[in-house]
Amino acid sequence: MDTPRNLVLAAWMDEHGYSANALADAVNAAIGDLTGKVGGLDGSSVRDWKAGRVRWPKSVTRAALEKVTGLPAIALGFVPRRRTPPSATAPPQEDLDMHRRAVLAGVSAAIAAVAAPPAAAMSRIGTSDVERLQRRFAEIIASDHRHGGRLTIEHKAAALADEALALQNSGSASQRVRGQLYGCAASFRSSAMWAAIDGRRFDEAIAHMREAQALAEMAADPAIKFRIWSHAGTLYRHMDCPAAALAANDVARGLNINRRDPLFASLGLARQAAIHGAAGDRTATHRAIAQAQAAIDRADVDAYRPVWLTAFYDQAELDSLALSAYLALGEWETAEAHGHRCLTALRPHMHRSKAIATARVARAQLKQHEAGTAVRTAMAIPAEAATRHPRVARMLHKFGTTMHTVVPGSTAARIWDEYAHDTWKASV
């Protein structure tokens, strides 16, 4: 597999006018300031960073780079080394604790990046600026629910995170407004993270996660902290690392906001159920789904909540997560029942969610040897989602493979093969 490029560092260099050689010279000088001996980096060293060949520079180099840029290494797209990769058999709590310490250590450096504006810049940053960014965030959320997973959404969200941070340097502001700006930046970065997860660009998702977590600490916003850690749990679940997924989701569920608002508690429990399902823990899955349902039933429907939560989490999403959990456990009939409940209740703007739930229902039907019904269900997914959304496309390819295992040589298998061939051929 190709090494993922460090697009965050490349974007920072472009924005600030640094060539590879110029950045190397600046870092060498900073190393000299820190150690008394000028560094020996050259342009090829920086190109290795950008290409992803070096994903975590040496400590002195990182310190110098942070001095030059004013940003922590994690906010520049670098990824700390793990002592052991997370796996389903080795709980990664130590790795997660080390990562959380790295995020917190990076907060002070990231705060230093937002220096006080120069005396000549007397503009005032106010709530209207925050509201403008929040409207843009609502647009990102809406685009995600329509399309999901696209690189354009990821890049747009990341650019808006940078815009929110740049606004910090453009004038004076109250402490409250500055906290809200950090919250906006964290929200945008978490949306970039989610788009990367949804598009199965996991290395990019991890890089977005690092920066989002640091920004959320500066914002001191428990809702956005919940979103980021909950997304981290989903990320590790999709990476087939259920132990890491449980540990990350436990961080989200441990925040006080779960005790204040049952809707947050319900979402955390529903995602916990999906993780337990992926891990094959039947008892824990059933218990978490029941607890998620009890929590959502207690939630005050009129309470104020952030737009990212109200735009997607409801009974339909709970049933969608239950569908995923029961599919993983092989409880096909129960999974299908939750799938139908989900599809019936989904709000009209949830195009991506509808395509994913439909693909899962088709799989549940196929596993019950209802091949004809399963094919009709799968064919109901719009061609755009079937071919352009990475998660949906992957599900449907797996559906086709399963078809030939469950009912090889059947009429249903032939119909699906012809449909899939024509659909994917038309998309090329």
The level of helicity is over 70%
Unreliable stretches = 83-93, 101-122
First-last Cα distance: 23 Å
Number of helices: 22
Largest sheet: none
Total count of strands = 0
- Shape, please? globular
What does this entry look like structurally?
73% of the residues lie in helices and 0% in strands. The chain is globular and about 75 Å long.
Keywords:
mainly alpha
A few lines on this structure:
This protein is an all-alpha fold and 428 residues long. It has helices at 7-16, 20-35, 43-51, 59-69, 93-113, 127-146, 151-168, 175-198, 202-219, 222-238, 242-253, 257-260, 262-279, 282-298, 307-310, 315-329, 332-345, 351-367, 371-379, 383-388, 390-406, 411-427.
Write the layout of secondary structure elements.
Layout: H1 7-16, H2 20-35, H3 43-51, H4 59-69, H5 93-113, H6 127-146, H7 151-168, H8 175-198, H9 202-219, H10 222-238, H11 242-253, H12 257-260, H13 262-279, H14 282-298, H15 307-310, H16 315-329, H17 332-345, H18 351-367, H19 371-379, H20 383-388, H21 390-406, H22 411-427
Helix pairs in contact: 2-3, 2-4, 5-9, 6-7, 6-8, 7-8, 8-9, 8-10, 9-10, 10-11, 10-13, 11-13, 13-14, 13-16, 14-16, 16-17, 16-18, 17-18, 18-19, 18-21, 19-22
